[in-house]
Design brief:
Structural class: alpha+beta
Shape: globular
Radius of gyration: 27 Å
Helix content: 25-40%
Number of strands: 33
């Protein structure tokens, strides 16, 4: 066992008390020539928050010292919450006076000051900052002549950043800038910084999206050495590589993607077997054939973690030479793939599978829209054009329904939230916002990818090899109890709330379908669940009611997929010896954490751009009237959602026909005099009152 593992195991023993370096070395029988290695190991573990070194220079585990390690989630009011690395521990409230210079998203250690670790109302104080998250901050510059301030775009960074006059860098009042922090906050003193980039005036076209890109540290340009490495790659598949692979170029294989997609990383095939079973083939771009571990391309891919899709642009994980070229499963050309063939019976069980390296040449590049038109609208023109594939698509639909039914029966949770489709003109201005309807073809690809990810994950789990799993742990029991109390007010209950099974939540969602309280209960149910993440341990996927799950199907745009492709291929070629296994066991935790962090940054950026474009769209429609549904009732007003998914607030101060009181238990607003009641699910007519572009918020007033 590596030294890292030995130290951790020894400290977890019941009888362990914090020790000095020398005491620990003696207890572990470390030879003199290995003392430097022990010191290095302890330093690394301390940086990661796995061990704590006290003021008296003793080493121990944080949780044994009433300490907790995690990331700080700031708030615009100044206080924060520590989100523990260990998801079994509850969040810890950190009052503003106990932040001690920590900022949003910093990795920190906190001491529990009230209640205890894991208690629902525990409070803490930040005692150490392990890793800073905000070395650069994006915000609006305010010139106060002899000094300036940058007001951060991210409201969770609640302090303005002080900028001395000599560090203005040419910034003018009202301009969006990138500021580098030169001095971290202490006590009541604000952080200090210097302007390193001017993005443009806050009202200029394009500055808004650029600010979001910089704010989430999304690198638009690849470093020279990365592009140079990509440019050395071939444009076509080398015939020498094909020799050692299974040749699937005679198989009918298609890609089914959105019309604009250029990074095609998954293709599917389907055959009916003589025994009545289906042979489903999922063929994934073999990116690891071109992106070698620790190469410039690999390090940059890990730094980015994921591709980011921002309506009018993509910030890819890999350069275009790979993402749109040699790795993309473009039609009718040779491409290297990693394939998973699954024999599936009529109940949706995978009775046999095979994982291998392959070469394919896809028959067609299909779009979701065209497959939907064939299967849902019986489009004669498309049926004629793709006549050789009609039977395949029909069988795919049958298998999708079998897999979907199986997944629902085991309790997989399906949230039916509306998604927005935002149409931009050539200048990036939103001209239409409508709901995006998921059709049959989207469901086909979803089900095929899920069953493939489960098959791969279970295969690797039983091999007991290092791996990166996609995990979604069971929800916090206290949050489920709180949800149960709330739904009780609407006449529902959650079965077995004390030891929740996903099926119980799916049954609740089925009961509320079409009811006025559907939006509220669905939203609160989603909030009661933990966030899915990546981990080196197979901890199951609660939302999918799946025991084993991973992300295997998108290595062009997700780093965990690329990493596990490498591991699978090393296993196929018998390269996973004990030395390599130990190496992977040490690598995987940091890869899983980095991938989870970058995924969250991408999601936040994508959501912010969507909110921005929705606000921009409604800013052109001040005074217009719309019909909408009350999606939420709060003490300060009603949130109303329009048919196109745009949501705005009717503030209680604008409800002037009466004095309204918020009934927290029943989630309703009641007029004191006229007794008019506003409930979730009520249809109301609203007028657009104002739009705050800085906060990306929309205000409505009731039209009647």
């Amino acid at each position: 066992m590596k030294l890292f593992g030995r130290v951790l195991e020894y400290m977890k023993e019941e009888a362990y008390n914090p020790m000095l370096f020398q005491e620990l070395a003696e207890a572990l029988n470390i030879a003199d020539d290995k003392l430097d290695e022990l010191e290095e190991t302890l330093e690394h573990m301390e940086t990661e928050g796995l061990v704590v070194k006290t003021r008296k220079k003793r080493y121990g585990l944080p949780e044994r010292m009433n300490l907790i390690v995690g990331r700080l989630q700031g708030s615009k009011k100044g206080f924060g919450f520590l989100i523990p690395d260990n998801p079994d521990l509850g969040d810890v409230y950190i009052p503003v006076e106990n932040l001690n210079g920590a900022m949003n998203n910093d990795k920190v250690i906190a001491r529990i000051t009230k209640a205890s670790i894991g208690a629902i109302k525990s409070e803490g104080e930040i005692i150490r900052i392990l890793k800073r998250a905000n070395e650069i901050v994006v915000g609006t510059f305010e010139n106060c002549k002899k000094y300036g301030f940058v007001v951060p775009d991210d409201a969770r960074i609640y302090q303005d950043i002080f900028v001395p006059q000599e560090d203005f860098g040419g910034a003018k009042n009202g301009y969006k800038v990138v500021v580098e922090i030169t001095r971290w906050p202490e006590g009541r003193r604000n952080p200090e910084g210097k302007v390193i980039e001017i993005l443009g005036h806050k009202d200029d076209v394009g500055t808004d999206i650029l600010s979001i890109i910089r704010g989430h540290n999304l690198p638009e340009v690849f470093p020279e050495e990365v592009e140079a490495q990509a440019n050395k790659l071939p444009d076509e598949v080398n015939e020498d590589i094909i020799k050692n692979r299974r040749d699937l170029r005679d198989r009918i294989i298609v890609t089914i993607d959105g019309e604009d997609a250029k990074d095609l990383d998954d293709a599917v095939s389907l055959e009916l077997l003589s025994n009545g079973n289906y042979l489903l083939g999922v063929h994934i771009a073999d990116v690891s054939q071109y992106v070698f571990e620790n190469s410039y391309l690999d390090k940059e891919a890990l730094r980015r973690g994921t591709s980011v899709y921002l309506l009018d642009r993509v910030i890819p994980m890999l350069p275009k030479k790979l993402s749109n070229g040699i790795c993309s499963l473009n039609p009718k050309v040779n491409r290297l793939t990693l394939s998973c063939d699954m024999e599936i019976d009529n109940k949706g069980n995978v009775v046999k599978y095979d994982i291998y390296e392959s070469v394919i040449s896809t028959t067609e590049r299909m779009t979701y829209e065209n497959v939907n038109k064939i299967l849902e609208e019986d489009d004669d023109q498309l049926k004629e054009r793709y006549k050789d594939l009609i039977e395949v698509f029909k069988n795919m639909e049958k298998l999708m329904n079998i897999l979907r039914k199986k997944r629902r029966l085991r309790g997989s949770i399906d949230f039916d939230f509306k998604e927005a489709k935002i149409v931009l003109d050539e200048k990036g201005k939103p001209v239409e916002i409508k709901t995006y309807e998921r059709g049959t073809s989207e469901k086909i690809i979803e089900e095929f990818m899920i069953v493939c990810n489960e098959t791969i994950a279970e295969h690797m789990y039983w091999k007991e090899l290092p791996f990166v799993y996609r995990v979604h742990e069971d929800p916090d029991p206290e949050k489920i109890m709180a949800l149960n109390q709330l739904v009780h007010n609407f006449g529902y209950s959650i079965k077995g709330a004390d030891e929740i099974h996903p099926k119980a939540l799916q049954q609740l969602l089925d009961k509320i379908t079409g009811k006025r309280e559907e939006r509220l209960i669905s939203t609160l149910t989603l909030r009661s669940l933990r966030k899915a993440r990546y981990d080196g341990a197979s901890l199951g996927h609660f939302g999918l009611a799946s025991k084993y799950y991973c992300h295997f199907t998108s290595p062009i745009r997700r780093y965990p997929d690329l990493m596990i492709h490498r591991i699978i291929k090393e296993d196929i070629h018998g390269k996973l010896n004990s030395k390599r296994i130990a190496e992977l066991n040490e690598l995987i935790p940091s890869i899983a954490e980095q991938s989870s962090i970058r995924e969250r940054a991408a999601e936040d950026a994508e959501r912010e751009v969507e909110d921005l474009k929705k606000a921009e769209y409604m800013a052109e429609r001040i005074g217009e009237e719309y019909e909408g549904i009350i999606s939420s009732v709060t003490s300060f007003g009603l949130f109303v959602e329009l048919d196109n998914t745009i949501e705005g607030l009717v503030h209680v101060s604008h409800m002037e026909d009466d004095f309204y009181i918020f009934d927290e238990v029943n989630h309703v607003m009641i007029g004191e005099r006229k007794r008019i009641i506003y409930r979730i699910g009520d249809t109301v007519k609203v007028r657009v009152l104002s739009v705050d572009m800085a906060n990306r918020s929309i205000d409505f007033v009731l039209a009647d």
